[in-house]
Amino acid sequence: MYAYDELDRTIVNERVSEFRDQVARRLSGELTEDEFKSLRLMNGVYLQLHAYMLRIAIPYGTLSSAQLRRLAHVGRRYDRGYGHFTTRQNIQFHWIKLEQLPDALADLAEVGIHAMQTSGNCIRNITADQWAGVAPEEVDDPRIWAEILRQYATLHPEFSFLPRKFKFAITASRHDRAAIKVHDIGLRIHRNAEGEVGFEVLVGGGLGRTPFLAKTINSFVSHRDILSYCEAILRVYNQYGRRDNIYKARIKILVHELGIEKFKQEVEEEWAQMRDGALTLEESEIADIRSRFTYPKYETLSDTPDELTKAVAADRHFEAWYKNSVAPHKVPGYAIVTLSLKPEGGTPGDATADQMDAIADLAEKYSFGEIRVGHEQNLALPHVAKRDLPALWRALDKVGVATPNVNLVSDIICCPGLDYCSLSNARSIPIAQELTRRFANPDTANLIGRLHINISGCINACGHHHVGHIGILGVEKNGEEFYQITIGGRADEHAELGTLVGPAVPHEQVADVIEDIVEAYLALRQRPDELFVDVVKRLGVEPFKERVYATR
Amino acid sequence: MPLVKGNVIVTDEFTHLADDAELPADGAILVSAERFLAGPEAVLARQGKIGVIWPNNRDVEDLLPYLNRLAAVALVFPVFRDGRAYTQARLLRERYKFRGELRATGQVLRDQFVFMLRAGFDAFEVKKQSDAEAFATVAKRYSVFYQPTGDGRVTAFHRRLMHLSESVAS
Ligand code: HEM
Ligand code: SF4
Fold first, then answer.
1. pLDDT tens sequence across A173-205
2. Which residues, other chains included, contact A376 with Cβ-Cβ below 8 Å and sequence gap of 6+?
3. Number of the ligand closest to the Cα of A94
4. Residue B167 binned pLDDT confidence (cut-offs 50, 70, 90)
5. Cα–Cα distance between A84 and A139 in angstroms, integer?
């Protein structure tokens, strides 16, 4: 965990007091809704279908038990008793009252949580691998760097009014869990031939109306230079990014229009003029940030404790959960446990205040008081002793977060869609709910194996549908809800954008079509461990298309 | 429109000169970039201070040959959310060492003052009287800053290191 010091706390508190003043000016009519809009957006406040919505940052997805309890408190006190974890390591409350927002933010500030820059055309919450610091093969803890970037980006005097929003994601593992190729800047920490830690910098990825995968602009930027290099990119973007058309204002369009070579040249020219300036990171600065991340005092434990071996042998339900919710940890005897927020028939990513409290307690008991939030809209406990897994599983099951479906077909990523979102064209939550029911049988799900379904209620792609193995996008046709279906997308280190299978289908047919696609996959795969996406890669969309549309 | 300088509302010594107006023999004037670039030497040759209003889509490098003879550069925020002039301000102050008045014009509201001060602006044509009056208070709203910019404020990082060395010494 990162411990805020007095300076970090001061900034957050000053921000709350500024926002309190802005809300008061809005309520008194001194600010029009139009003037207030940009101000509230920079504090994560949207005006949605039913009410104001508050989006709160969970930088690099790390939460303490105290912080999670405080989120529960906000859900209970100011909302309707639940919150929605999003694909960007944020949590949203959908039913909050304008006049209570400053109090909610003040309550959160006490535990070092804020909503700064979770919206608006600024550098958004910096996301990272949710297994940072515990993943077995990582080069460094990416959160150190995410925190350095978080501080750099917070209330940045030059980049708080960019052409569009700007998203960073960081990973330090070979296996990318942070989806860095679909971010404005993706950073991959690795070592060069001399053993120095640095960054592969990717730029210009993003989804939405015009999806692009990010391109590598520099394969190795020294860790000392990472802030100045990013500032050079941001400065070029701030000056030359399009502002005439909001659909073309993202950096991905600038990179695309200039071409990565020309864009790189612009960036490197800018960088040459500033690279050894005040942004150069000193080792003492990095050491200071690093020192404020504390790691648990792990015990020396058996990696194959009896308790675990026995439970696996004795209980088929435990075994199923263990198989897909528990991942290896860098310390022997420990494991990373994913908590599924995708129960059968539920809303992906929702957690009630009571669940949050219970999870906070379990984290204290079993995971050194730490919780993680991943972009798949699930939570994780990052430091669980393997011998405690059976007991933890029983406790999680009581809380309703032990559905054994992590990475399986019912572990669906889904935006709020027409049920909450004013931009939406179609419902997404009911589609997700229907699919989780169709694929509720754990044996079928296990037979299918790893398969990611992503659903967005409109072209904005909050549900990352382009990079779902199966992507479902709500579109409107003559006032009715239709859905386009893509297959073959993925968001990991082999990121791809999905391909359309065929014409959009009406609401009531979506689940059938998905079942057809899955059945086609089962018939087409060469081995049980050939993943759905790999079959699409091998055969293309044609065989799936035939299967789906032959009978319709 | 009220002008704020040094935390207080002041009378503007500059007159905005229309592009087709005759060049006055003396007095401080602000001219458009177009007019200025059409004949910079003629404008600079007169008595009195010269300021240029520089649009936010034009390279500030075009101003470099004249920078040390300009008393003011006014940068433009056509709408609140268009932040190009922040970059221009930092370049003028930090890279090109412009020491004259750097004025923010256009959609200038109180909610930008801190950003503008940090980017190097020192004069503000504020849209609303109430915002201009609130300037001194709003400018003090934040006491801690994360990023180094040319405004010389000590960043959180340096304060932490100073604190560290103090605690090591004591
Ligand atoms: C309910 C209120 C929401 C609103 C009004 C909203 C608005 C938007 C808009 C306008 C975009 C398009 C941005 C662009 O042009 O690139 C977008 C993209 C996105 N939003 Fe949302 N969103 C909402 C909820 C969510 C939720 C719940 C999530 C996560 C589940 C989310 C995550 C994202 C992501 C990941 C993108 C993709 C952007 C990209 O990579 O280009 N948003 N959102
Ligand atoms: S994808 Fe569209 S419908 Fe879904 S949350 Fe985003 S903006 Fe709303």
1. 999 999 999 999 999 999 999 999 999 999 999
2. A87, A411, A413, A452
3. 1
4. low
5. 31
pTM: 0.95
Q: How many CB atoms lie within 10 A of CB A438?
A: 17
**Predicted confidence (pLDDT) per residue in B3-13, tens digit:** 999 999 999 99
A169: enclosing H helix or E strand: strand A168-171
DSSP secondary structure letters along A425-465? SS--HHHHHHHHHHT--HHHHHHH-S--EEEESSTT-TT-G
Best of B59, B76, B84 to mutate (most A CBs within 10 Å, chain A): B84
Q: How far apart are CA A531 and CA A533, in angstroms?
A: 5
Q: How far apart are CA B110 and CA B120, in angstroms?
A: 16
Contacts of A536 (CB under 8 A, 6+ apart): A469, A487, A488, A499, A544
Q: State how far residue A230 is from chain B, nearest Cα, in angstroms.
A: 13
What digits encode the pLDDT tens for the residues A441-471? 999 999 999 999 999 999 999 999 999 999 9
Q: Please answer yes or no on whether A238 and B143 come within 8 Å at the CB atom.
A: no
Which among A295, A494, A374, A339 is positioned nearest to A86, based on CA atoms? A374
| C-alpha A7 to ligand 2 mean position (Å) | 36
**Is A5 close to B160, i.e. CB distance below 8 A?**
yes
ipTM of the complex: 0.95
> Average pLDDT for residues A243-259, to the nearest whole number?
94
